[in-house]
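Lab manual, section 2.4: Encoding a predicted structure.

Procedure: take the sequence of the chain (355 residues), apply the prediction step described in section 2.3, and record the output as structure tokens. A sample record is shown.
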Amino acid sequence: MLIAVMLILLSVPVVQNYLAQKTTQYLEKTYGVAIDIQAVRLGVTGDVSLKNVFVKDHHNDTLILAKEISTTLKSTQQILKGNTNLQQVNLKEAYVRMVTYPEDDKDNMRVFFARFAKQKPQKATSFTLHVDRVNLENCTYSYTNSSIQKEPIVNLKQIELSASQLDYRNKEFKITAQNGALIYNDGIEINQFSTAFKFVSERLDFDDIILKTKEKSDLQGNLIFRYESGDFSDFNNCVTLTSKIKESAVASNDLKYFYNEFGSREMFYITTDFYGTLNDFQLYNLKLEGLGNSNIVGDMSFQGARSKQLKQDFSYEGNLKKLQTTKEDLERLLPSLIKNKLPAQLSELGAIKYK
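Recorded output:
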């Protein structure tokens, strides 16, 4: 009888909102984090829904804003023991705003979670989290380093994601994304992506990547980020990337986002092993073809590719087994820079080859 009365009380909106208010007050008093929840809905079967969630960072600005967060609890007893096991988490119209402020050496998300770590329970337990299914609907993510620029360095919009097997234990985070879509920095529309993601200290792993864009790019492979504390403040020079790109297609319309002088509606086909930073990297076992009659086989290295003084700093070297192109292909590659500027006699040579 008592349990039935409690369930009825917990289903009353006034009681649920009171519990939400007390929870946010406890979090702010105990951990110094500001979280506002407009409404809480609790179901008798373990369903929990949080409406209009607002999380502030340590500068009293937005960290997380979500219209709705809903989940289903498997076992409340295990949660009390530090083992959170959820059937499904749904996130609707959420905005995650990560910022590294000029006076900080950590972004606001890491500062936020560090506040929970400061309060150690008398009996230490190892926190674990497992979620069977994760769904994101119309979400947004941005990262800004205010020491470098005021505008976001990364801005992901209209994120739709279906994922499974989210797991966190022993400071290792894993999740498998089966079907996702988003718009990258208002420039590249990704229609489909999937990957097995893992995060451990100073390393991000993306295995079994499949990424397809509106412009028909089709990338497959894997990618690893290696870094030390503070490296993301100078991502182009400090974060080391290792990638194996399997047989993939890249659309020049997508490349135009990074360098607008590329020609339109061209396709490039590539396999290679990538190693280095974005400003100083090597391409091993490169096989690149496209534009009709052009291909490159061999190893290449690039320096200064992301330099602000691109004309002065950019350089490249190659140990090539094969290089082939034509005057017409070069004009299609960089039409505004090359077209009508190469000697007409080059057309008579046909394919120019180096082996």
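Check your result against the sample. The CA atoms of residues 263 and 335 lie 6 Å apart.
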